[in-house]
Amino acid sequence: MMRKRKKKVKAADIPLAGMSDIAFLLIIFFMLTTVFTAEKGLQIVLPMKGEQVKVKKKNIIHVYVNKLGQVRINDRDVSLLEVREVIRKMLDENPKAVVSLKIDERCKYDDVIKVFDQLKLAKAERIAFAPPRRAK
Amino acid sequence: MKLKVREHERPEIPTASMGDIATLLIIFFMLTTVFREERGLHVSLPKAIATRKLPKKNIAHIWVNRDGVISIDDRIVTPDMVYIIMQRKVMANPNIIVSILMDKDCRYGVLAKIFDALREAEALRVSLATLKEKGG
What is the DSSP letter of A7? Predict the structure, then answer.
């Protein structure tokens, strides 16, 4: 009987040298693609319920926004782009002025934000949302 | 006299455990990453130039989609329930900032109702979530 010759089996090897490169590439990839969602927005502080701050009539700037997003400041129609300048001028004349925003209920939120943004850009610190005019 | 030139051994940084370090880092970040738990509603936020970043802590979200549906903590709520929920949140954390994520096509009337509810619940620090618009 012939004796079987034992074949030498080579141990299978996985090349591990490039492992760390792969791992680091993964880390770098995820570091670069991660987006931290920062919360952003326009801040306001609401008045307390029942808190009545008496403001002299001459210190109030009335800003009206109708349902189409058209703006009126103290009985003068202005375009959205003029709001910032007009308000800034008024605040320069009277730094104690308070902006009262009266907005139609049916007005689009986008238009509200646009006007509010302009007020913020005009550095109006004291802005009050007046109760909306009810739809008739 | 001729000096004997010493054979310098070349310095080497051991890189064998590099892979372990990288893998550990990956595992560490995988375990410590917290994904946002709240899914909210589908909204397209308005854009504003005066957008500011909010602090990361003490934030409660109110989602309002374009049909005026309100969602808090992934539960659809009626406008009347906003007051009760927010009051509970304010009791738990008086420094809370309410971030209102409202669709730009929504009507202002919904926001006015939420403002009323927030004033009632004494959650006075509010942020209207917007996207940053370039310019200014």
Answer: P
Q: Which CATH class is domain B47-132?
A: alpha beta
- pLDDT per position as a tens digit, B110-125: 998 899 899 888 888 9
Global model pTM greater than 0.80: no
Query: What residues of chain B, 1 to 30, have a C-beta less than 8 Å from chain A?
Result: 15, 18-19, 21-23, 25-26, 29
Domain range holding A99? 58-129
Domains: count for chain A: 1
Asked if A103's CB is within 8 angstroms of B108's CB, the reply is: yes
- Put simply, the answer to whether B108 touches A132 (Cβ < 8 Å) is yes
Q: What is the ipTM of this complex?
A: 0.72
Instruction: Give residue A12's pLDDT.
Output: 85
**Cα–Cα distance between B134 and B136 in angstroms, integer?**
7
Asked if residues B120 and A115 have their Cβ atoms less than 8 Å apart, the reply is: no
Q: Which of A26, A46, A64 to mutate to test the interface with B (most CBs of B within 10 A)?
A: A46
Tokens, residue A16: 């591990």
From residue B68, how far is each of A43, B23, B103, B127 by CA, in Å?
21, 47, 8, 18
Which chain A residues are Cβ-neighbours of B48 within 8 angstroms?
42, 113-114, 116-117, 120
Smallest CA–CA separation between B4 and chain A, in Å?
A: 38
